[in-house]
Amino acid sequence: MGLARILRCQPYARGGVDPVPDHFSLKRNDQEVSPKERQALARLSKK
Question: Rounded CA gap, 44 and 21, in Å?
């Protein structure tokens, strides 16, 4: 569970409170990635 949380961590995260979930899931939070965030992540993956 800790590894999944670390993998979801990135510099463009919305931040805020990140409570420990009651149940483990590899799925990301229900929040969608905005087009702006997607572009930033694409630039990072090209490096």
Answer: 28
Cα distance between residue 16 and residue 6, in whole Å: 15
Distances (CA, A) of 21 to 32, 34, 42: 18, 23, 28
pTM of the model: 0.32
Q: Which of 19, 13, 18, 17 is nearest to 34 (CA)?
A: 13
What are the pLDDT digits (tens) for 3-34? 777 766 766 666 656 667 777 767 666 566 77
In a domain? residue 3: yes
Q: Identity (one letter) of the amino acid at 34? A: S
**Within a domain: residue 1?**
yes
